[in-house]
Each structure stands twice: as structure tokens, then as C-alpha cells.
TrEMBL record:
Name of this protein: Protein kinase domain-containing protein
SMART domains membership: TyrKc (SM00219)
Binding site for Mg(2+): N254
Keywords: ATP-binding, Kinase, Magnesium, Membrane, Metal-binding, Nucleotide-binding, Signal, Transferase, Transmembrane, Transmembrane helix
InterPro entries: CR_Ser/Thr_kinase, Kinase-like_dom_sf, Prot_kinase_dom, Ser-Thr/Tyr_kinase_cat_dom, Tyr_kinase_AS, Tyr_kinase_cat_dom
Gene Ontology MF term list: ATP binding; metal ion binding; protein tyrosine kinase activity
First and last residue of the signal peptide: 1-24
Entry's transmembrane regions: 60-85
Pfam family, one: PK_Tyr_Ser-Thr
Positions annotated as active site in the UniProt record: D249 (proton acceptor)
Domain Protein kinase: 123-401
Length: 409
């Protein structure tokens, strides 16, 4: 046991010499004093090699203090370096926020004078169909000839410039063929504007309920294409973006159609810019119905991706039937689209659910009753009251792609 103690002491002092030598400290105790001078020091232990216990104890305390000081100073140095590094990183990040469009060459921060110029001072002739409660949308042309749509939001004293730019930056990064691209924004004295790409055929709402002059009614194949491409855009927000993005305001007027009648979803993140009282007014539609909003959001303020699935289900029934979520009926007053559709579904009278523009068109191919039934089944699957029972949007996309195949023959 005594020999083992001497051996351990030798190893300890050897390591101590190496550590203190790096820092330029020479210990009072040498290896010879500890381990002995002869080669048989581990076998022989005489009175000459034994150190005084008090002396050894004092040396141990000195060594322990020196080693502790070295470790402490090293730790403090690392902590100070980390604090300085984090502070520098925070400063660099704040500088980037000051120049909000620096990291996105395609995204521009416009001045208010530039927006006045490209929209002809927000003239009524440039006003597009939109929700007047959020300020309205205007068409415009950039100096390079690019057509844009400028969304004017209600004034807000609650949202600061940095917060607005930060949210626009996040939304502008969401790039998908079925999402309307954000091209820039403007913030000045509480006035907020978002500049979008211009989508040629405008809102789906007018094609379902107010067919433009010279325009044609949407046939079954076109409606299925709109539903499928819209579902693809929503599925991208739910499944490909991290963290997931919940749109919250999926409705016919937020779906824009391009020249080939593909759907482009706009208004991603817009709910954060709309005052609470405006969103609250949207909650209850005419006749006490809740329109596109999921019941868990209306009653418990719960908002998940399944809330978007519910809204899509309502919109899908609107696309098929041509009826708004709530519609005036002479005999009963206001009636929701589901109150109208459910008796027909229960009686298996599926062709009667179709928009009259589909059945009255001489060029439109009328789908089979079984195909209509599958679409309606998908509608009711998306609008189940229990959120967990609703399908994922990726599943909805798959179902619609399968359903669209027979209609293209």
C-alpha cells in the first residue's frame, strides 16, 4: 500500500510539472524529492525519502491553490469570450434588421411616394376587388414594367417597423408555385403596405359569383384544377415549412387565379397585420354562421393546421356548388351551405349539388355521380367537428389528384 502511494504521488507530481511548466510556474517540490534518486525507489523505502507530513500537507495546499487558480482563470476567460461573442452576434443581427431587405435581393422596401406613383395615387380605377375592411388592394406597374398588386392595410399604432419588416421577411421566404409571391412592403407613420405579384385572373370569388364580362364560367375540370393547386399550396405551408405555417384566413377572395386557372393563395401571415376587431367581425357571418372558420377556433380560439383543413373543406364545397358559405334564402332567411347540402347528400342526390353553370354549359363535361360523391365525401371529411379526425392536406392533395383523372378524359 505504501509503495502504491509513492507511485501515485510520482505520477501526480509529473503531471503537475507539465501543467505548471506551461504557465511558467516552478513548483518547490522536485520529482527527485518525491520519487527518490535511485532506480529501485519503488522497491525501497527508507527514512531519507520520507517527507515530513506537515511539509507535504503544506505543499499539497499550495499546489491545489495554484491549480484551482489556473482552472478558475481559464473558465472565466472562456465565459468572458462567450459573452463578447454573443453580444457581437446580436449587434450584427440588429444591423441586418435595420436594412430589412439586405438578405433578400428580390424583396424591396418601397417608399410611399413610389407606391403612389405606381398605383396612380391609389386611384379607384386601379382598385381591385378586395376586402375594404383591411384597406383595399390596388394594381400598379413598376418602372421595369412588372405588374404588381399593392395591399393597403389599416393603420396600426401597435406594430412597430421592425416587427412589420421581420414578419414580411418571414413571409417573403415562402416560395411555392401556388403561393402569391411577396415582392416588397412599405411602412411609414403607421401606414403599412404589402406589394404582391400580380395574378392575371384575379380572385376566385368573382369567378364563382360574379363572372367577369367576357369571361367564361368555370367547368368541372377547371374547378378540380383550382382545388388541387390550392391544396398543394396549403400542404406546402403545413408540411414543408418549419415551423408549420397556419394561414387562418382561407376563403375564395384570398385565392387568385392565373391565366391557366391555377390557384395562388395570398394573405399568408396577413392575419398578424389585421386588427383584432376586424378579424372578430369576420368571425360571425350573416345569419349567425361562421363561414370558413373552424368551430374550435370560434369557440376556444384554438388554431392548428387542422383549422386550415376545415376552411379548405368549406371552400371546396363552394367551388363545387357555386354557393357562398352563407346565403340568403327567401323561405328561411340566411342559410349555410351545409344546411343546404346535407339533405341532398343524405338523399344521394349528388348531381343537384353542382353549380348550375356546370350543368347548363354545352361545353362542360358533367362528372359522374360517383365522382361528385367522392368530392363531397372529402368535403365532409375535412369539416368534421373533431380536428384530429380531419385528414392532412397532403392526403387531400392525393385524393383530389386521383379524382381529377377521369374528368380529363
Amino acid at each position: 500500500m505504501e509503495l502504491n502511494s509513492i507511485a501515485l504521488k510520482c505520477v501526480f507530481f509529473l503531471l503537475l510539472h507539465l501543467i505548471l511548466g506551461v504557465h511558467g510556474i516552478v513548483p518547490n517540490v522536485t520529482l527527485n524529492e518525491t520519487c527518490g534518486n535511485s532506480s529501485g525507489s519503488f522497491r525501497r523505502h527508507t527514512k531519507d525519502t520520507k517527507c515530513d507530513h506537515m511539509h507535504c500537507h503544506r505543499e499539497y495546499l499550495i499546489i491545489l491553490a495554484v491549480v484551482s487558480a489556473v482552472i478558475l482563470s481559464t473558465t472565466l476567460g472562456v465565459v468572458v469570450w462567450l459573452l463578447v461573442y454573443k453580444r457581437g452576434k446580436k449587434r450584427r443581427r440588429s444591423r441586418k434588421l435595420y436594412d430589412p431587405a439586405a438578405s433578400l435581393p428580390s424583396w424591396k422596401v418601397f417608399t410611399k411616394d413610389e407606391l403612389r406613383s405606381i398605383t396612380k395615387n391609389f386611384s379607384e380605377g386601379n382598385r381591385l376587388v378586395g376586402d375594404a375592411k383591411t384597406g383595399g388592394t390596388y394594381s400598379g406597374v413598376l418602372p421595369d414594367g412588372t405588374k404588381v398588386a399593392v395591399k393597403r392595410l389599416k393603420r396600426s399604432s401597435f406594430q412597430r417597423k421592425k416587427e412589420f419588416y421581420s414578419e414580411i421577411r418571414r413571409v417573403a421566404r415562402l416560395c411555392h408555385p401556388n403561393l402569391v409571391t411577396v415582392m416588397g412592403c412599405c411602412y411609414g407613420h403607421g401606414d403599412r403596405y404589402i406589394v404582391y405579384e400580380f395574378v392575371a385572373n384575379g380572385p376566385l370569388d368573382k369567378w364563382l359569383h360574379h363572372i367577369p364580362r367576357g369571361g367564361r364560367s368555370l367547368d368541372w375540370a377547371m374547378r378540380m384544377k383550382i382545388a388541387t393547386t390550392l391544396a398543394q399550396g396549403i400542404a406546402f405551408l403545413h408540411d414543408k415549412v418549419k415551423p408549420q405555417v397556419v394561414h387562418r384566413d382561407i376563403r375564395a377572395s384570398n385565392v387568385l387565379l392565373d391565366e391557366e386557372f391555377g390557384a395562388h393563395l395570398m394573405g399568408v401571415g396577413l392575419s398578424k397585420f389585421v386588427p383584432y376587431e376586424v378579424m372578430h367581425e369576420r368571425t360571425v357571418m350573416a345569419g349567425g354562421t361562421y363561414g370558413y372558420l373552424a368551430p374550435e377556433f370560434v369557440y376556444r380560439n384554438e388554431l392548428t393546421t387542422k383549422s386550415d383543413v376545415y376552411s379548405f373543406g368549406v371552400l371546396l364545397l363552394e367551388i363545387v356548388s357555386g354557393r357562398r358559405p352563407a346565403q340568403a334564402v327567401d323561405s328561411v332567411g340566411w342559410q349555410s351551405v351545409f344546411e343546404w347540402a346535407t339533405p341532398l347528400v343524405q338523399a344521394h342526390r349528388y348531381p343537384e349539388l353542382l353549380d348550375s353553370h356546370i350543368t347548363s354549359s354545352s361545353t362542360s363535361i358533367i362528372p359522374e355521380a360517383s365522382t361528385i360523391q367522392k368530392v363531397v365525401d372529402l368535403v365532409y371529411s375535412c369539416t368534421q367537428h373533431v380536428p384530429s379526425m380531419r385528414p392532412r392536406m397532403s392526403h387531400v392533395v392525393h385524393q383530389l389528384q386521383q379524382l381529377a383523372q377521369p374528368s380529363s378524359k
